Amino acid sequence: MGLIIVANRAPFRLTPEGLVPAVGGLATALLPVLERRHGVWVAAGEWREKGQAATPRESQVRLEQVFFPEKEWQGYYGGFSNRVLWPLCHYFLERVELRREFYQDYQRANRRFAERVAEVFREGDTVFVQDYHLLLLPRLLRERIAAKIGFFFHIPWPSSGVFRILPWGRALVEGVLGADLIGFHTPEYVENFLRTAAYYGYQVEGNRVRVGERWVRVEAHPLGIDTGRFGELSQDPHIGLHARALKRLAGAERLILGVDRLDYTKGILERLLAYERLLQSYPQWRGRVAFFQIATPSRTSVHAYRELKRRVDEVVGRIMGSFLREDWVPLRYFYQTYTQEELAAFYRAADVALITPLRDGMNLVAMEYAYTTEDGVLVLSNLAGAAEYLKEALLVNPYDLDGMAQALDRALRMPEGERRERLSALKARIEALNVQGWAERFLASLEEG
Ligand code: GDG
């Protein structure tokens, strides 16, 4: 049976040789399944040239692009997706910009996706829709085609009290309930969604929502990482050499690492302040610890992201101004994108990973670090979906600077026995969440249900 995946972004990147599969995240999770089923990926258009340039190489997958007029794209993507839904679902309510024209563009864009999927659809195909950009799509598809429809939401579904802030909340819930199966990372988001549906008057029984004659199932399907790949990276001798070079560059007994897209939900500012607090409150670490923060450029066309970059630059400068010595660089801030191999070298060099988003649907970096490091310590925000599964991490409240400084001190001093014990438990949990099984499990539930 055929499979159509619909997501805002395509799982490819453009190289001089043409489009090649991207590494990480959704591409790793979904491309193998799609290849086995000779499927189609429908995404917003990034590559205008028709023909060769937009045909993926080294892949059996067909790419269908949906193009938008510039204004509609801005309203749908930069507007409703990233200035309404993204901040709302991560509880940044003061950042939500409730503008009617954003919603109108979001409706138009979702309709455009629906038209394209309907063209591509063949009888018997399953359609699997991804994420917050496409909440209206399941219902629009149901009106057009007789397909099994799955939907996965990669970010937190907020409490119903927060969701209700959206003047279009009812229509969005109606839209997503066009699916047969709706998936989230954690039981908490499932619970929040069911309460939201109940608020809008739907009958809810167990984990099912009644829509007319249909029952829509809502399930937790936690996404993990490619453990095979990260297992290899953790053993690769070249990466080992690079890791040692990074450790030398750090020039300190202990290295702390942060890795994120530069996004206000990731808690980068608070994390820098917590590190500053560590150096103030535990002066014994001055000269003995270094902090590397990698921030990957993201959504640079959205004002809030440029503003965040300015503030991070400022705080980095201030910490350097207060603590830098001739023989010690307390902090290095890398605003750039790395290859996965380079990233793995950072993971292997770091004694502690400080992953402290203020909210996060799951957070795969936490899993990548714990799976790749040999004997490091994971300090993880209790507001990331991953905290639900990675119980052996040191869990912290990412808003509590003193608490984070204290946890850092503990992580830096943690005896080897405890480190290894926690890490082997974490690795076993991550193994069980392996991404390879994720799509199969979701699709099996969708197609059998
Ligand atoms: C969303 C949700 C949910 C980062 N910098 C580089 C790089 N990365 C890779 C990491 C990791 C991925 O990007 C980031 O994934 P996260 O899960 O941490 O966060 P989001 O991007 O916000 O993802 C999140 C996820 O969707 C999946 O459902 O977990 O909660 O917000 O894989 O390694 N990769 C490379 N170079 C970089 O510089 N190669």
TrEMBL record:
Pathway assigned to this chain's UniProt record: Glycan biosynthesis; trehalose biosynthesis
Record keywords: Glycosyltransferase, Transferase
Sections of the chain in a coiled coil: none
TM region positions: none
Tagged with keyword Transport: no
The keyword Transferase is annotated on this UniProt entry: yes
Reaction(s) catalysed by this chain's protein: D-glucose 6-phosphate + UDP-alpha-D-glucose = alpha,alpha-trehalose 6-phosphate + UDP + H(+)
Known EC number: 2.4.1.15
UniProt-listed Pfam families: Glyco_transf_20
Molecular functions (GO terms): alpha,alpha-trehalose-phosphate synthase (UDP-forming) activity
The protein's assembly and partners: Homotetramer.
Functional note: Probably involved in the osmoprotection via the biosynthesis of trehalose. Catalyzes the transfer of glucose from UDP-alpha-D-glucose (UDP-Glc) to D-glucose 6-phosphate (Glc-6-P) to form trehalose-6-phosphate. Acts with retention of the anomeric configuration of the UDP-sugar donor.
UniProt-listed NCBIfam families: trehalose_OtsA (TIGR02400)
Family indicated by similarity: Belongs to the glycosyltransferase 20 family.
Protein name in the entry: Trehalose-6-phosphate synthase
Annotated organism of origin: Thermus composti
